[in-house]
Design brief:
Keywords: Membrane, Signal, Transport. This is Cytochrome b561 and DOMON domain-containing protein At5g47530. Its main location: membrane. The protein has about 190 residues and is mostly beta strands. It has a single domain, classed as Immunoglobulin-like (Sandwich). It is built from one helix and twelve strands. The strands form two sheets. Strands 4, 5, 6, 9, 10, 11 and 12 form a seven-stranded antiparallel β-sheet that branches. A five-stranded antiparallel β-sheet has the order 1-2-3-8-7. The longest helix has 21 residues. The protein is globular, with a radius of gyration of 17 Å. The structure holds 2-acetamido-2-deoxy-beta-D-glucopyranose (5 copies). One 2-acetamido-2-deoxy-beta-D-glucopyranose binds next to loops. The site of one 2-acetamido-2-deoxy-beta-D-glucopyranose has 2 residues, from loops.
Length: about 190
C-alpha cells in the first residue's frame, strides 16, 4: 500500500511545484543578462509578474518583478513582514529619477502620506537595480526574507512620479487589490 502511494504523492508534489508556473503566463518571460529564476507567479493585478530563486541555505531570494507602466510613472514591489497592505510595506520602487536615469530605491511605508526617499528596509537588501523596456519596468533584487520565513505578505503598486519621486497611485481598481501572500517555496501566490 505504502509502496503504491509513494509515486502518487511524489507526482502530486511535482505537479504542485510545476503547476503554478504552467497555469500562468510567466514561464516564457526572459530577462536581461540571461538572468534565470526557478519559480514564477502571475500576480493577477496590475499585469505584474514575479520571478524568483529562493536559497534555503541563507534565506535569501533573488527576485525579478516586472509590470507594465508608462515611463513617467513608477512601479513597486514590497514585502510586508508585520501586516498586509501599504502600512509596513518594505518596498523596492523603480522609476526615472530627476537625472532621467532608471533607479531602484528602497523605502518602508509607515503612513499614507509618505515622503518617499531611499532608505533602509527592516530586512537586508543585498542588491537592487531596475530597467525599463518594452513599456515595462523590471526590478531585480536580492533580499533576505524577513525572519527566514518563506510565506510572506506581499504588495505591489504602480503610480505617478513628480519631481523625480513617487508621489501616489490610483485609489481604486487593481491599485487597491494588488496584495497577497507569496509562498517562496512553491511559487503559489494567493491574493485578491
Ligand atoms: C511559450 O513558448 C512556447 C514555445 O515557443 C509556446 O508554444 C507557448 O505557447 C508559450 N506560452 C505562452 C504562455 O506564451
Ligand atoms: C493589463 O492587460 C490587459 C490585457 O492586455 C489590459 O487590457 C489592461 O489595460 C492591462 N492593465 C494594466 C494595469 O496594464
Ligand atoms: C532558513 O530556512 C531554511 C528553510 O526552512 C533552512 O533550511 C535554513 O537553515 C534557514 N536559515 C537560517 C539562516 O536560519
Ligand atoms: C545565498 O546562497 C546562494 C546559494 O547557496 C548563493 O548563490 C548566494 O550568493 C547567497 N547569497 C548571499 C546574499 O549570500
Ligand atoms: C542602512 O544599512 C546599512 C547597512 O546595514 C548601514 O550601514 C547604514 O548606516 C544604514 N543607514 C541608515 C540610514 O540607517
Amino acid at each position: 500500500m505504502a509502496a503504491l502511494m509513494r509515486p502518487a504523492i511524489l507526482l502530486s508534489l511535482i505537479i504542485s511545484l510545476i503547476l503554478p508556473c504552467l497555469a500562468q503566463n510567466c514561464l516564457n518571460d526572459t530577462f536581461s543578462n540571461n538572468r534565470l529564476y526557478t519559480l514564477c507567479s502571475s500576480l493577477g493585478r496590475l499585469n505584474a509578474t514575479l520571478h524568483w530563486t529562493y536559497h534555503p541555505s541563507n534565506g535569501t531570494a533573488d527576485i525579478a518583478y516586472s509590470a507594465p507602466q508608462e515611463s513617467s510613472g513608477f512601479v513597486a514591489w514590497a514585502i510586508n513582514p508585520s501586516s498586509s497592505g501599504m502600512i509596513g510595506a518594505n518596498a523596492i520602487l523603480a522609476f526615472y529619477d530627476s537625472t532621467a536615469a532608471v533607479t531602484a530605491i528602497t523605502y518602508e511605508f509607515s503612513n499614507y502620506t509618505p515622503s518617499v526617499r531611499d532608505s533602509n528596509l527592516s530586512f537586508r537588501v543585498y542588491s537592487r537595480e531596475a530597467e525599463y523596456s518594452d513599456g515595462k519596468y523590471t526590478i531585480y533584487a536580492t533580499v533576505a526574507l524577513p525572519g527566514n520565513r518563506t510565506t510572506l505578505n506581499t504588495v505591489w503598486q504602480a503610480g505617478q512620479v513628480s519631481g523625480g519621486v513617487p508621489v501616489g497611485h490610483a485609489l481604486s481598481g487593481d491599485n487597491i487589490k494588488s496584495m497577497g501572500s507569496t509562498d517562496f517555496l512553491t511559487g503559489e501566490s494567493s491574493g485578491s
